[in-house]
Design goal:
- The structure is a single chain.
- This protein is α+β, with helices and mostly antiparallel strands.
- The protein is built from 5 helices and 8 strands, in the order E-E-H-H-E-E-E-H-E-H-E-E-H.
- The structure holds coenzyme A (COA).
Length: 177
């Protein structure tokens, strides 16, 4: 049966939050994207830096793609990271993914961006009762972030580098009318 929710839903962008703007990825985001894929700290729990050939292909693939968003600072429009929403083929749920440049960590930006994306998704995607996030079990910053937004750790999976899946339920994020 065909998905009733597309695998890469399209957020209505630009989407402003208090301190950020989420927008489509643009060709001139290339330097930020390249750092996201190659910075050893950003890639620490994701298998390390990617090769330049993979980076080149991936950057081009992200430009204008539904479900892939650039996180920018509202005050300066500086691009500071990436936010994604797409189908998690393992669980079948929609999944959020995220990564910011290290100089912008620990300021609440990831939390602010993800909460805005979740509010939009639960409001606009009627079939999305649960949205998940997968992260390596030893990725403490990512797990702290997910716990801070109220996500619940529901499953461990994977061999070798163990991963965990967190779930966020619509009822937590939308106030009933
Ligand atoms: C995970 C990541 C996006 C967090 O971004 P961030 O903007 O620093 O997170 P926030 O500032 O919004 O913090 C959210 C919560 O997590 C906590 N947190 C964030 N980083 C932390 C760390 N290194 N250690 C402990 N707690 C941390 C914050 O204290 C906050 O909790 P609180 O509201 O209870 O204080 C960032 O570390 C990152 O880009 N990492 C590399 C990419 C990555 O691993 N992505 C996940 C792949 S699955």
């Amino acid at each position: 049966m065909a998905d009733s929710v597309p695998s890469r839903p399209a957020l209505t962008v630009p989407l402003p939050t208090a301190r950020l703007v989420l927008r489509a990825v643009q060709p001139d985001d290339d330097p930020m994207l390249t750092r996201i894929w190659t910075d050893p700290d950003v890639r620490r729990y994701m298998g390390g830096p990617l090769s330049s050939e993979v980076v080149r292909h991936r950057n081009g693939d992200f430009v204008g793609k539904p479900g892939k968003y650039c996180v920018t600072l509202r005050a300066t429009l500086e691009p500071i990271g990436l936010l994604g929403i797409g189908r998690d083929h393992r669980s079948g749920h929609l999944e959020v993914s995220y990564g910011l440049l290290p100089e912008h960590w620990r300021r609440g930006y990831a939390q602010e961006a993800i909460l805005a994306l979740l509010a939009w998704a639960f409001e606009r995607l009627p079939d999305a009762d649960v949205i998940v996030a997968n992260t390596r079990a030893d990725n403490a910053p990512s797990r702290q972030l997910l716990q801070a937004i109220g996500a619940e750790c529901v499953e461990s999976f994977g061999e070798g580098d163990e991963s965990v899946m967190y779930a966020m339920a619509r009822r937590q994020f939308l106030t009933p009318p």
